Amino acid sequence: MTPDCCQQISGYTMTPDMDHNGDDIGQSLDVLDKCNADSTCKGFNSAGWYKRVVSPTSTFTGTCFYTKIGTSKDSDAEMH
User: Fold this and answer.
1) Could you tell me if 27 and 49 are in contact, meaning their C-beta atoms sit under 8 angstroms apart?
2) Whose C-alpha in 4, 9, 17, 33 is 20 to 30 A from the C-alpha of 51?
3) What residues form DSSP beta bridges with 32?
4) pTM higher than 0.90, yes or no?
5) Exposure class string for 31-56: b at 16+ Cβ within 10 A, else e
6) pLDDT tens digit string along 1-30?
């Protein structure tokens, strides 16, 4: 999926050409359903990887990154 094809998804903030490396929970073709069903999921990318942490992000051309609305990028740091 290229950023030109990034779709807005209700409940998520979409950022083109970005990703978070690591902190993967898993990968799925039904990534939206998986992330919505998992309370530890904070976001996912267009390659189907859903993640428990969404920061820091870095440039990753051709990838769309989705962050759950209401997810603080610093929430994990605040909890410790």
Assistant:
1) yes
2) 4
3) none
4) no
5) bbebbbeeeebbbbbbebbbbbbbbe
6) 445 689 999 999 999 999 999 999 999 999
Indicate the fold that domain 3-72 takes in CATH: Hepatocyte Growth Factor (3.50.4)
Which tokens is 42 given? 């904070």
Interacting residues of 31 by C-beta distance below 8 A, sequence separation 6+: 44, 48, 49, 50
Using CB atoms within 10 A of its CB, is residue 28 exposed (0-12), middle (13-18) or buried (19+)? middle
Please state the three-class secondary structure of the chain as a single string: CCHHHCCCCCCEEEEEEEECCCCEEEECCCHHHHHHHCCCCCEEECCCEEECCCCCCEEEEEEEEEEECCCCCCHHHHHC
Residue with tokens 């267009």, as numbered in its chain? 46
